[in-house]
Each structure stands twice: as structure tokens, then as C-alpha cells.
Amino acid sequence: HADALGMPVFLPEEPSATMPLGGAMLAAAAAGAYPSVHAAMRGMGGLGSVVIPQSDPSLRRFHDARYEIFLRMQRHQQEYQALERAALSAD
What's the Rg (C-alpha) of the chain? Predict the structure, then answer.
């Protein structure tokens, strides 16, 4: 994920707690226990390790191309759904 995002990914100390802990962090920030989600992450999460992205330009181009493919597929899917809605409402 670090390579695809082009930024470091911080992993928790306890990977199995990722979902509940993330939800708790969001809730704590929303409730005002922390001034921001970032502050809640710092205050509630123990840092296990950091994954640093590779600095390979060809890998960056690959991930950029994959993202462009995803965006095009998403736009096409929206066009298909619009065609279906139009067909169903034509009566």
C-alpha cells in the first residue's frame, strides 16, 4: 500500500485490533475527546512499524496507470447505470 499511495504507511502494534481501534479513534475525535483524527491516532494507537514506499519511478508509473484504469472503469460503470435507469424509466 505504501508504494501505491506514495507515502509511508504506519502499522499498529496489534494488527487484529485495526478495525475496532480505527472506529474508536474516529468516535473519540467526533466526540471531542481529541481535536482531530490525527490527534486521536497519535494518542490511542501504538506504532508497530512503518512501511516506506520504494522510490522506483517505474513502480510509480505502474501504480499511476492502475489508478487511471480504476477511474475510467468507475466512470464507465456510472454510464452503464445511467443507461439502465433510462431504459427502466422509458415506459
Answer: 20
User: pTM for the complete prediction?
Assistant: 0.60
The per-residue pLDDT for 75 is 97
SS (H, E, C) the chain: CHHHHCCCEEEECCHHHHHHHHHHHHHHHHCCCCCCHHHHHHHHCCEEEEECCCCCHHHHHHHHHHHHHHHHHHHHHHHHHHHHHHHHCCC
Q: Are 45 and 12 in contact (CB under 8 A)?
A: yes
d(CA 28, CA 42): 12
Sequence letter at residue 51: V
